[in-house]
Amino acid sequence: MQKYVIRRLLLAVPVLLLSSLIVFGLMRVMPGDALIALMGESGNVGEKELAKLRKDLGLDQPYYQQYLLWLWQMVSLRPGDSIFTNEPIAVSLRKAIPVTLELAALAMIIGLVIAVPVGVLSATRQDKPADYAGRVVAVAGLSIPDFWLATLVITFAAIWVNWIPPIGYVSFWDSPWRNLQQFLLPAAILGYRLSSATMRMTRSTVLETLREDYVRTAWAKGLAGRIVVYKHALKNALIPVVTIVGGQLGTLLAGTFVVEQIFALPGMGRLTVEAILYRDYPVVQTNVMLVAATLVTLNLVVDLTYAWLDPRIRYQ
Q1: pLDDT number for residue 309
Q2: CATH number of the domain where residue 186 is located
């Protein structure tokens, strides 16, 4: 196990390096100029002032020097300052990361709470009304985009019940009820999207597992149906489900970018979108690399979970 973890961590290094090269290159080929956008906010600025600011920020250096400097800042955990706000990026991340983590965690919990029971119910009631209803719900969740569903929910909630989510972030520790009012609706939208694919995979794997010989033996021994399904079948059926949940984490993080913008939540998604609009290179690069490192870590955790679900799996 230890050797496996070390190998996976070593393999993560070239993945992160390639990700850093891609995001650095894409930010440099984007149309527009960060300093011109910044100067546009403060009025007309001469060429000398623009050149001096470019030199102070290190944007006059060759691209390879800019890349190496930024890479060293990331490795040393000092990502620098925002070009547009002049605020340290670490300070911005300390404000934004808790918001995104809370939204993603609530969405994951809601998604799994919906997906696994409905998927099991759909499998054990195959070709019955409950099965068809579950499949319709899953297909609808896969078909409806997050941004469209979020806009629709806000619009109809405002029209029908004269209610919109509170504007402005409030910490859970300051006001739990107001915080849940802000997060439950966007988390439910993200969780529904996440649950759809997981629900279909749960149904398929549980159906397959219920046809195994050891499950038939459990039925023949007269064990209660709930014990056979949840104790004998579900645990072995969860390995493909865990795999797809791990893959959905990237979709979940991408979904928070859009949903945070719609619900005015000051998380990493909103911070990144605003940084892209203002060509704030350091903020965009740092946020993308943080997401990439998070996905690499989560994929490792998903792989290590297999051994707990199936003792036959061994990591050599």
Answers
A1: 65
A2: 1.10.3720.10
Is-above-0.90 flag for pTM?
no
Q: Could you report the per-residue pLDDT of 85-128, keeping only the tens digit for each?
A: 778 888 888 888 888 888 888 988 898 888 888 888 888 888 88
122 plus 186 within the same structural domain: yes
Domain that holds residue 216: 91-277
Burial of 10 (0-12, 13-18, 19+ CB in 10 A): exposed
User: Per residue, what are the HEC states of the chain?
Assistant: CHHHHHHHHHHHHHHHHHHHHHHHHHHHHCCCCHHHHHHHHHCCCCHHHHHHHHHHCCCCCCHHHHHHHHHHHHHCCCCCECCCCCCEHHHHHHHHHHHHHHHHHHHHHHHHHHHHHHHHHHHHCCCCHHHHHHHHHHHHHHHCCHHHHHHHHHHHHHHHCCCCCCCCCCCCCCCHHHHHHHHHHHHHHHHHHHHHHHHHHHHHHHHHHHCCHHHHHHHHCCCCHHHHHHHHHHHHHHHHHHHHHHHHHHHHHHHHHHHHHHCCCCCHHHHHHHHHHCCCHHHHHHHHHHHHHHHHHHHHHHHHHHHHHCCCCCCC
Among residues 41, 75, 109, which one ends one of the domains?
75
Q: pLDDT tens-digit profile of 250-282?
A: 767 766 778 888 888 888 888 888 888 777 888
97 and 56 assigned to the same domain: no
Task: Domain count for the chain, please give it.
Answer: 2
Q: Is residue 86 part of a domain?
A: no
- Segments in the chain below pLDDT 70: 1, 32-47, 49-50, 219, 222-225, 232, 251, 254-255, 306-316
Q: What is the pLDDT of residue 43?
A: 53
Residues 40 and 126 in one domain: no
